[in-house]
Q: What sequence folds into this?
């Protein structure tokens, strides 16, 4: 189990937050995903044997949101 | 061709405007009609071509996002808009399609500008962390990144520059602007041995500082961390709204489908889709919370999240810790009486006797003496500390005793003086006697200094409708009683152990309801944690209180509490306005669509406008200040 926080480009619509959150939650290997609207961050707990943080970034970016940072 | 958001909005605006004029002028130039089967076919005119172009330019990102989300089996608002636009094309409503996509794009653009503005005060704060630090390395100045500075490094800060570490001044004097920490913009004078905080600025002067805390450990970094976390801690209302909107959107979609099946009215169903996202409602709370947190941070008030802010304004009781909260926490000399000698003489001799004492009471006497008589250089010839009682000493060949009652048990004290002492003690004063040879020659009264703002604060709290103002203290009841009378406190409880404070607090909660506990976080941590809302004052440099309290007043100015309560109430008010407005608009729109008074573009226009109005309303919180009645 691993935890990661992605800094996304500024989120300006709450519906996009729901979108990213649901997409992450539906991704295999993700145990927990929460998108923080005001600080424009995504907090993800995942199983590193099933998925990598690179894959998670790909999911977010495919939805049309840039990932600026990771920690 | 890659367009920025802004360019896309401008190009679409021009095209929409152009097609609107052509449409209104009914200039159906370049008309090409093509029928592929009887009446079915296209009518291509210049306005129609422009409308389609406009729809594509403003809609391309919307369609793309809709498609991407669909791959994750997500129904997004973009998908609904896309369906509405395609539907509009099918029924030949090119103008509606162009108008809807443009309004959606414009709305999103304006919303992002407003939301950025709302977040700006927090962002400014986060961006204001020190970027570079100048240290002294083997006698040479060197510039370092904040992350490379270590505890113990010697830091040099010049006029106009920002201090990058928490530390102690080794050398220099300066006026500092500590607004980033305390919210007070009045410059503060600091000199050798003074404490300075990262994030503050030197207005004039020059300092050499020894770093005691660096990087993530500084008070400023902790503030930033709290603020960053706080903005996404949801208010209770927000959770209800999110639940509501979870059902709202699918509900409207089902409604749209049902209507289509029954009435076969595609236009009506499409319009329903456009208004299916309760944007104004969803944004009603978080934007107000962010604005309020930003406002607080600017005024030296740290709030841990939306829920705290929601509660503070509803508090019925405010309970204060005494020492260090309502009072400064340091004793001062309040009265000196000479018996057969002048008060100055009493003060002078006492100060001389206390020369080598570190006791807070001794410090208070020395301070008072030097304030009144100037610096005293004389020293006693001999002193002897009597622990828990006072001091014995020789000065100019006379024997003196200075201390409390217990030191003088063997001595006969005049009845009149005894009366005087009792009277002073009933006012909560600590009384110290000075004896020369066998004679009492002076009485000094000391007490903890009451904070300047305390009285006004309690008056303001009452004016704001707080039911009970209570004081909880571990100290003796005499001073507590005296203080309560002076400050106008309703109830006080003295001689409480920390766990008894907690019990008292629970009793208050049961009796009156929502209770705020205000303390300095030093010995009242359990009470701060247990209260409905724990508020710590003087948070700068006090990590514990920053961790446990729900709200932290960064400076010692306890008067800021009214700002915190006022801000909370204002926020609640604005959230209520936002929610009411959003609901009225949502149901109004729904009704308007069903009775066919609202078409696609009008529906989108009202929807986007309502979102922007909610955002602008929330933005008002950034400028909130306590009005003069309560300040």
A:
């Amino acid at each position: 189990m691993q935890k990661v926080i992605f800094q996304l480009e500024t989120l300006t619509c709450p519906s996009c937050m729901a979108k990213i959150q649901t997409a992450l939650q539906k991704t295999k290997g993700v145990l927990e995903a929460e998108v923080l609207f005001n600080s424009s961050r995504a907090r993800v707990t995942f199983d590193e044997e099933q998925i990598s943080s690179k894959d998670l970034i790909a999911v977010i970016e495919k939805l049309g949101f840039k990932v600026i940072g990771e920690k | 061709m890659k367009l920025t958001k802004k360019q896309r909005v401008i190009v679409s605006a021009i095209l929409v405007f152009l097609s609107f004029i052509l449409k209104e002028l009914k200039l159906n130039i370049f008309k090409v009609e093509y029928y592929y089967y009887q009446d079915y076919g296209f009518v291509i005119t210049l306005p129609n071509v422009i409308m389609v172009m406009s729809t594509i330019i403003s809609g391309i990102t919307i369609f793309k996002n809709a498609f991407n989300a669909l791959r994750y089996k997500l129904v997004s608002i973009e998908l609904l808009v896309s369906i509405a636009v395609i539907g509009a094309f099918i029924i030949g409503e090119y103008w509606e399609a162009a108008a809807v996509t443009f309004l959606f794009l414009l709305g999103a653009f304006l919303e992002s500008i407003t939301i950025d503005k709302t977040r700006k005060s927090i962002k400014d704060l986060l961006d204001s962390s020190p970027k570079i630090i100048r240290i002294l390395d083997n006698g040479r100045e060197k510039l370092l990144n904040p992350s490379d500075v270590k505890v113990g490094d010697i830091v040099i800060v010049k006029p106009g520059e920002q201090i990058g570490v928490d530390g102690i001044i080794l050398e220099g004097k300066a006026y500092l602007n500590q607004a980033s920490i305390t919210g007070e913009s009045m410059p503060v004078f600091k000199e050798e041995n003074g404490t300075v905080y990262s994030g503050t600025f030197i207005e004039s002067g020059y300092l050499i500082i020894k770093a005691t805390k660096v990087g993530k450990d500084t008070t400023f970094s902790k503030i930033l961390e709290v603020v960053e976390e706080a903005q996404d801690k949801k208010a209770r209302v927000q959770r209800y709204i999110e639940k509501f909107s979870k059902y709202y959107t699918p509900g409207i979609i089902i409604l749209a489908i049902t209507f289509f099946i029954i009435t076969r009215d595609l236009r009506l169903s499409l319009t329903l889709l456009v208004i299916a996202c309760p944007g104004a409602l969803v944004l009603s709370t978080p934007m107000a919370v962010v604005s309020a947190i930003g406002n607080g941070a600017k005024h030296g008030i740290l709030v841990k999240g939306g829920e705290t802010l929601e509660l503070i304004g509803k508090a019925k009781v405010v309970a204060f810790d005494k020492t260090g909260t309502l009072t400064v926490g340091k004793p001062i000399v309040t009265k000196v009486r000479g018996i057969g000698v002048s008060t100055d003489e009493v003060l002078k001799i006492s100060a001389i006797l206390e020369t080598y004492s570190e006791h807070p009471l001794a410090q208070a006497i020395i301070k008072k003496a030097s304030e009144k008589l100037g610096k005293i250089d004389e020293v006693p010839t001999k002193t002897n500390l009597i622990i828990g009682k006072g001091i014995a000493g020789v000065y100019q060949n006379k024997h003196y005793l200075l201390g409390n009652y217990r030191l003088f048990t063997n001595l006969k004290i005049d009845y009149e003086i005894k009366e005087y002492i009792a009277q002073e003690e009933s006012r909560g004063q600590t009384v110290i006697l000075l004896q020369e040879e066998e004679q009492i020659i002076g009485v000094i009264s000391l007490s903890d200094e009451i904070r300047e703002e305390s009285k006004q604060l309690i008056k303001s709290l009452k004016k704001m409708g707080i039911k009970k103002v209570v004081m909880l203290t571990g100290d003796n009841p005499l001073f507590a009683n005296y203080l309560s009378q002076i400050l106008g406190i309703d109830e006080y409880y003295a001689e409480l152990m920390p766990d008894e404070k907690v019990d008292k607090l629970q009793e208050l909660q049961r009796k009156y309801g929502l209770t705020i506990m205000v303390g300095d976080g030093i010995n009242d941590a359990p009470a701060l944690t247990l209260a409905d809302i724990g508020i710590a004052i003087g948070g700068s440099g006090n990590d514990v209180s920053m961790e446990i309290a729900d709200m932290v007043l960064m400076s010692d100015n306890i008067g800021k509490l009214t700002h915190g309560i006022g801000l909370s109430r204002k926020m609640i008010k604005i959230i209520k306005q936002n929610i009411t407005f959003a609901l009225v608009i949502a149901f109004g729109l729904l009704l308007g669509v069903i009775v066919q008074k609202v078409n696609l573009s009008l529906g989108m226009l009202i929807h986007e406008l309502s979102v922007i109005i909610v955002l602008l309303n929330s933005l008002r919180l950034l400028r909130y200040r306590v009005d003069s009645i309560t300040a």
About this structure: Chain B touches chain A at residues 61, 64-65, 68-69, 71-74, 76-77, 108, 111-112, 115-116, 119, 122, 228, 231-232, 277, 279, 282-283, 286, 289-290 (CB under 8 Å). The mean pLDDT of chain B is 87. Residues 560-594 of chain B form the longest helix (35 residues).
